[in-house]
Amino acid sequence: MSILGIPVTTLAGVPTTLGELLGGKAALVVNVASRCGLTPQYGGLVQLQGAYGERGFTVVGVPCNQFMGQEPGSAAEIQEFCSTTYGVDFPLLAKTDVNGADRHPLYLELVGDGGDIQWNFEKFLVNADGEVVARFAPKVQPDDPELVSALEKTL
Length: 155
Fold this sequence. Notes:
By secondary structure, the protein is of the alpha+beta class. It contains 5 helices and 6 strands, in the order E-E-H-E-H-E-H-H-E-E-H. A hairpin with a 5-residue loop joins strand 1 (7-9) and strand 2 (15-17). The chain is globular, with a radius of gyration of 14 Å.
């Protein structure tokens, strides 16, 4: 199965596929959490979305509660936090397991043979064809020159 054909559910509970969600755009898929020391990266992700959205790019946030319970809220609470605190306007998926026996098929494909997700805010750059072109560690900021360069080459 292509990564674009993988079924996902939006934070609002709407079933879709990654391909339908992206609509031919490149994406930065990020497992996110509201109560993490890295949570301020939401601001940088919103800036990336604003800077590159019209060029065929979107951020996709994937809430995950697997790292010290740092995303404990309901879908409504997550949406409220993201929109009011950071002005998040990019797609958010339903809370998802990114590691372990219940790892979502999206993360099975994103990770491939690359091992487990290290922590919240690990980032995967995916081109418009659904190919993973880069992986960035959680502490890599959204405005990191290496990430921005990879993104610009992908567009």
